[in-house]
Structures are given as C-alpha cells and as structure tokens.
Amino acid sequence: MIFVVSTARTGLPRYQRLVDGLVLPGSVAHAPALDFCNTLAGWNGGEERDYLETYAHLVVWARDAGLVDDAAAAVLRDEAASDPRVAERQLRRARSLRRALYRACADPDDLAAWDAVGREARAAAAHAELHHGRPPGRRWSVSAEVGLARPVLEIAREAGALLATTDLGDVKQCPGSGCGWLFVDRSGRRRWCTMEVCGNRAKVRRHADRERAARTAHPESESGDA
Question: What is the pLDDT of residues 48-103, one digit of tens each?
Fold first, then answer.
C-alpha cells in the first residue's frame, strides 16, 4: 500500500491535508508527540474536532509521522478490518494518551497526567527493539508482536521522550478561538499555530471589532447627511 499526501487543491482549509484519502491536521508543532496532540482541535473551548475518527486515521497519522512504515501500516489496517473491536479499543487508548499528554504539556505540575503518559511509555519500552544498521537505520521501534497496539505504543515512546527531554516552557498553546494546538517555540516570538490561519482570523476579528466600536461611537455616520 502506498500512502499519498495530497498537495493538489482539495477544498480543505489550510490547516488540513489529505493523506491516503483521509483528512488529517497539518503538521505545525515541530515535534511528533505535539502534532499528535493536535489531532484534536478545540482544546481551548468551542466545538471540538477529532481527526482520529477511526483506527485507520490513527494508523495513517502514525505512518505519516514516521512512527510506522508503509508495510507495517498496511498490515495494521488489514488486522483492524479483521478485528474491529480490538481496533476500537486501541483507538480509545490513543485518545486517552493524547489527553494525558496535552495536560502534561499544558500543566507540568499535573502529576496524574504525567503518570498516565509514563505508564504507556513504560509499556512501549517493554516491547522496544533496537534496529541495527547504518544511520538513520539505527533506531528503537516497538515490536510488531504487540499487534494493533503498535501505533499507540510508538506514540507513547515519542511522548515519553518529549516529556523527558523538552523544556516545557518552550511548548506553547495557540490562543486561536477553537484551537489550542501545541507547538515548540524556542525563540519566544511565535504566538499562533499558523499565522495564515489563527493569526489572520484574529486580525479579521480585531478589525471587525474596531469597526463596530467606531460605528457605536459615531452612530450619525451611519445615517448619512440630514
């Protein structure tokens, strides 16, 4: 199975993309574990949008993030079709990990969230294999023996590494309405997940607010000359 990221016009907004025929969020975080958190939009209020609609979405996202390869992703999707109840259980597990990771990044003092991520990271470590070869072939990955749990555990490996090695003061939350996506900002100058989307929306809202305020302050300008 070949996975394709569509770069053609799809009618999707700029923060979405089509991967193997499935709608996924754009990659904006500069860290796979944070991009995984961004498979849910609306963390900071408003209507939530969950991009992990099915187990297939989870597999395609993990493949696109480089956590499983094409062959493994194809096998996982076939196995999920044969055992949909287990696939659904692993999808719920992934969503639970996502929520715990987001909480741990947003509030480093949330020990319950850290413990939840830590449990999954330990489970991933228990099934990790070290691959021999020339760089970048040398790497850790989760054994295929875990079956449909593999995408979740590969993400848990990334999540554990993120919390262990990243200054969480550099992890920012987009203040865009209905967004809340996370991203790494080591410069201290980045405010939005994407300036083209959330940044521009805020500009438009500010402009509209100024115009409303001006009309309220000078209502006679609306009625024309007497």
Answer: 999 999 999 999 999 999 999 999 999 999 999 999 999 999 999 999 999 999 99
DSSP label at residue 3 = -
Burial of 121 (0-12, 13-18, 19+ CB in 10 A): buried
Q: Are 34 and 163 in contact (CB under 8 A)?
A: no
CA-CA distance, 110 to 103, in Å (whole number)? 7
Tokens of 79: 């196995």
| Contact between 24 and 39 (Cβ < 8 Å) | yes
In angstroms, the CA 17 to CA 36 distance is 15
The H or E element spanning position 142 is: strand 139-142
Alpha-carbon gap, residue 89 to 69, rounded angstroms: 22
Q: What pTM does this model have?
A: 0.84
Unique residue bearing structure tokens 């509209």: 208
Question: Could you report the per-residue pLDDT of 150-208, keeping only the tens digit for each?
Answer: 999 999 999 999 999 999 999 999 999 889 999 999 999 899 998 776 856 545 454 34
Q: How far apart are CA 148 and CA 129, in angstroms?
A: 17
Strands 22-25 and 16-19: antiparallel
Instruction: Determine contact, residues 63/5, Cβ cutoff 8 Å.
Output: no
Q: Is the dihedral of CA 59, 62, 63, 64 positive or negative?
A: positive
Q: Among residues 12, 27, 71, 37, which one has the least CA distance to residue 181?
A: 37
133, 140 contact by CB (below 8 A): no
Identify the CA nearest to 182 among candidates 115, 104, 113, 116. Answer: 104
